[in-house]
Design a protein that fits this description.
elongated, 194 residues, OB fold (Dihydrolipoamide Acetyltransferase, E2P), alpha+beta, five-stranded mixed beta sheet, 5 helices, 10 strands, single chain
């Protein structure tokens, strides 16, 4: 069975399709500029799929004193209110004491005291950020829990000196300092508390 193709009709249908597509894709000067800006923004962003050294880490942002710190969520066991604690005689200066959180006893350290040689605020109500560790229960007392965010790491720490030394691995443009939880575990005050 043979069928003939009406090429005239095919050309008319293609022309009508092309005209409809041109109307849909019609770009004004303003829209064209917006498309170029968006393309530029996307091209400037790191290609995370390519295996570059840039990656996003989900963090909890907390304030201690006048500073804001970011702790990777994957390294946290939780956050609890911090209102009552028991001082421990002979404890390191950064250790406030111990407290009961989630039915377990946690050693509480004031984050400001750990990272700053400029004294520290007195321990007050606030929050305790519970750190995830297989054998120890360490909590960091902070003044306020700010928010959750994605922290984009570039792979190198800021070259500017910051409070906290090796514990602070990077600083965002808005002054939030990313903390290395492994470096916190190695801090002399936390090591003394055993």
């Amino acid at each position: 069975m043979s069928s003939t193709v009406d090429w005239q009709e095919v050309r008319q249908r293609l022309a009508a399709g092309d005209a409809a597509l041109a109307r849909v894709l019609e770009v004004t000067d303003e829209r064209f500029e917006a498309l170029l800006r968006e393309r530029t923004r996307r091209l400037a962003m790191p290609d995370l799929a390519s295996g570059s050294r840039i990656a996003a880490t989900r963090v909890l942002v907390a304030r201690s004193g006048s500073e804001r710190y970011a702790l990777p969520l994957a390294r946290l066991a939780g956050v609890v209110p911090f209102a009552r604690w028991t001082p421990v005689a002979g404890a390191p200066a950064a250790m406030i004491g111990v407290f009961n959180g989630r039915g377990a006893i946690w050693a509480a350290f004031d984050l400001h005291r750990l990272l700053s040689a400029n004294g520290s605020p007195e321990a007050t109500d606030g929050g305790a950020v519970l750190l995830r560790h297989p054998h120890r229960r360490i909590a960091l007392r902070v003044d306020e829990i700010s928010d959750l965010r994605d922290f984009r790491r570039v792979g190198t720490a800021s070259s500017a000196p910051v409070a906290g030394g090796e514990i602070v691995t990077e600083v965002t443009s808005d002054g939030v300092m990313l903390l290395d939880v492994d470096a916190l575990w190695a801090h002399p005050s936390i090591g003394e508390a055993g």
